[in-house]
Each structure stands twice: as structure tokens, then as C-alpha cells.
Design goal:
Layout (H helix, E strand, L loop, with lengths): L2 E5 L6 E3 L7 E7 L2 E2 L7 E8 L2 E8 L11 E4 L3 H4 L5 E11 L2 E5 L5 E6 L15 H14 L46 H4 L3 H11 L16 E8 L6 E2 L10 E10 L4 E7 L2 E4 L9 E8 L2 H6 L3 E5 L3 E16 L16 H13 L6
Parallel strand pairs: 2-10
Antiparallel strand pairs: 1-3, 3-4, 3-7, 5-6, 5-8, 8-9, 8-10, 11-18, 12-17, 13-16, 13-18, 14-15, 14-17
Length: 364
């Protein structure tokens, strides 16, 4: 029996990144006849791309109320869309009832498109150094610049002559006060002052961080995040994507701190013919899962995303906490840092340097 899945005529067929209000409407049919979905016990929307399955979202049976037979709505939640890049995706609807599981459609999954929003379009990089940060750095730097040397003290005036000797003669007048010494030179703004100022050392360090241990993934952070009600292989957990095309014959290391509450968990990446798994963090424990791999050309063509998942498919729901997801070149996992596009750039630093020079100082 041929099962089909179609968009309704007025349903959208694409959605922008970050949009959680758009609603897709589908029609499920079996051999051309609409299906009575109200008899289902569970309905699940599952999405994937050319690399395979990505994640899923349940559809409440109660949401069918008021819809035509065979119709159902899907309003993608933030957990379904988070981290997915613009591109073409495929969708299936799994309907579970007392008779078993029916998957719509029977053949090729239904295609839909995720498009960029305005924040994802090309443009100047928005850095994490704000105007207030810059003002604070200037004030800190100015407070550390050494003052000029104090001028020499003036010579002491000559003592006045002693008056003539007399029985009760008065003491002679006090000599004139010496001239005040010249004022010392004004302190100068030089490299010794500015470049050693803690605030500007911090700025320079930010730039240097982009040269070693670079995180090749975007959208990551080092704040411990907990996702509750994770089920299946890891439904609800985010996926991340490389900011640049990876290279063949290059060794890469993937790492992430994990705290799985109830099931063994690891990090994964898609390579040719399989999903590569990192070290396992046991249920109820915590630690850093790592995966070091040298990619082949086939692997490079297959790599699309990096994610966290259970080591086995689970039917219950449990919590997983994570932070510091990182992909870097080499065979050693180093401390987390953001992707260079998400921190102060060399261009931004050059602007600060130009501003310092304009004020009469220098910064190297």
C-alpha cells in the first residue's frame, strides 16, 4: 500500500532559521484515501538531510481537533530547529497505533527548506567587544601609565651676614629664599605604559587566541546547559556545524563536557559509511568526551554535523547537561574557546591601535 505525505495547498514549504511561529500543514493518505489520524496513540515528525536522521518532534493527538481528516499541523519548536544551517531537509511522519507503526510517505521523504534570516546573511562581524568595554579598557590603561620624573629641588638660599658684635646686638636678617626648581617633564604615553596595561594585554590575548586551538564550530558556548526530557538517540540535543570545509589527511579532535543523568552518552560526527563515536561518559557521571580522527577524502565529503547522543536508543526521558563543544586541528583537546568570528578580530584590534596613536600613544 502506497502511503503519501503532501503539503496542503496553503501550507508554507520553507522556514527561516530561528522562526518558531511558522506552521506546516500536511495530508496523510493511504492508497489515495485520507487516513484517520485520531486513532493514533503517538504521532512523531522526524527530519533529516543528505547525511541521515537528525532529530524529531512529537505532534499532540489533541492538535488534530478541528482539522480535516488526514490533516495535521507541525509548528517546529526551537529544539527542532536549533543549530540547523540553511539548506534542504527531508521529513517523515510516523503514526503509531494499536496495529503498529505507519511511516508517511512510503518512498522519498517530503522536502522542505530552511533559509537564512537577516542575522545569518553576509556582513561585518559583530564582535564581543562593546563600546563600554573599550572605554573601560582605556581608563584602565591610562591609570597604569607611569608619570614623568619629578623636577630637581631648587638650591637653598645663602645665609645672611652676621650683624656686628654688640652687647645685646640683634640677629641679622634671614637670607633670601632660593628660586623654585623647574617643573618636571610631563609623563609620556609609550609602549611601556600601554602595552603592559592589563586591559590591553587582555585585548591582545583575545586576538592571539584565534591562532592556536581554534574552535572550528560556531554557536557553541562554555555555559553548562541542561536539556530535560531527552529521548530516542538524543532528541532535543543540539547539533553543530563546522565554520569551514575540513581537509583530508588532517587530524582533528572533537571534545565536549558531558553530565548524562540516566544513560551512557557520547559525542558523534558523521563520516563516510558510519557515525564516529567519542569516549563514553557513563550515566550518572561527568567528564569530557573526546574523539580524535584523521579524515579521508571520503570522510571530508560526508562530514556535515557534530552532535551529542545516547549510546543506545532510549524509550524513556532523561536529562543531559553539556558545555564546551569544540572541534580543533591536532590530536590534543584544549580548553574551549569561541570561533574566531565570534571574538575580537585583527581588524577590530587595528582600529583600537589607530585610536591610541591618534591620542599620541602607541600600541604594538
Amino acid at each position: 500500500m502506497a502511503k503519501t505525505l503532501e503539503f496542503t495547498t496553503k501550507s508554507p514549504r520553507q522556514i527561516k532559521q530561528g522562526d518558531t511561529e511558522t506552521m506546516f500543514t500536511f495530508i496523510c493518505k493511504n492508497t489515495g484515501t485520507v487516513v484517520d489520524l485520531t486513532q493514533a496513540t503517538n504521532i512523531i515528525a522526524k527530519i533529516g538531510n543528505y547525511s541521515g536522521y537528525l532529530r524529531s518532534q512529537p505532534i499532540a493527538i489533541t492538535s488534530l481537533t478541528g482539522l480535516k481528516p488526514g490533516w495535521l499541523n507541525l509548528q517546529p519548536a526551537s529544539t527542532l530547529m536549533a543549530g540547523l544551517p540553511a539548506g534542504s531537509y527531508q521529513l517523515e511522519i510516523w503514526v503509531i497505533d494499536q496495529a503498529g507503526t505507519s511511516i508517511y510517505p512510503s518512498d522519498t521523504p517530503l522536502s522542505f527548506t530552511i533559509t537564512n534570516n537577516i542575522e545569518n546573511e553576509g556582513g561585518d562581524t559583530i564582535t564581543t567587544i562593546t563600546f563600554d568595554d573599550f572605554v573601560e579598557a582605556m581608563n584602565k590603561a591610562a591609570s597604569t601609565i607611569a608619570k614623568g620624573d619629578k623636577g630637581d629641588k631648587g638650591d637653598k638660599g645663602d645665609k645672611g651676614d652676621t650683624g656686628p658684635q654688640g652687647a645685646t646686638g640683634q640677629t641679622g636678617p634671614q637670607g633670601a629664599k632660593g628660586d623654585k626648581g623647574d617643573k618636571g617633564d610631563k609623563g609620556s604615553v609609550d609602549n611601556a605604559g600601554l602595552t603592559t596595561a592589563p586591559a590591553f594585554v587582555k585585548l591582545q590575548t583575545q586576538v592571539n587566541d584565534s591562532a592556536a586551538g581554534t574552535n572550528l564550530l560556531t554557536g557553541t558556548n562554555n555555559t553548562l546547559t541542561t536539556v530535560t526530557n531527552v529521548t530516542g538517540w538524543g532528541d532535543g540535543l543540539p547539533a553543530y556545524h563546522p565554520a569551514e570545509k575540513l581537509k583530508a589527511n588532517q587530524t582533528y579532535t572533537l571534545s565536549c563536557y558531558l553530565e548524562p543523568a540516566a544513560h551512557d552518552t557520547s559525542i558523534f560526527m558523521k563520516i563516510a559509511h558510519r557515525n564516529a563515536m567519542g569516549t563514553v561518559i557513563a550515566a550518572g557521571s561527568k567528564g569530557i568526551s573526546t574523539l580524535t580522527i584523521t579524515l579521508t577524502q571520503e570522510d571530508v565529503e560526508a562530514v556535515s554535523n557534530f552532535w551529542i547522543a545516547f549510546c543506545n536508543n532510549q524509550t524513556d526521558k532523561s536529562a543531559v547537561s553539556f558545555r564546551g563543544f569544540k572541534l580543533e586541528k591536532g590530536s590534543v583537546a584544549t580548553d574551549w574557546c569561541p570561533n574566531p568570528s565570534e571574538i575580537l578580530t585583527q581588524s577590530d584590534y587595528a582600529k583600537i591601535q589607530a585610536a591610541i596613536v591618534a591620542l599620541g600613544g602607541s600600541l604594538s
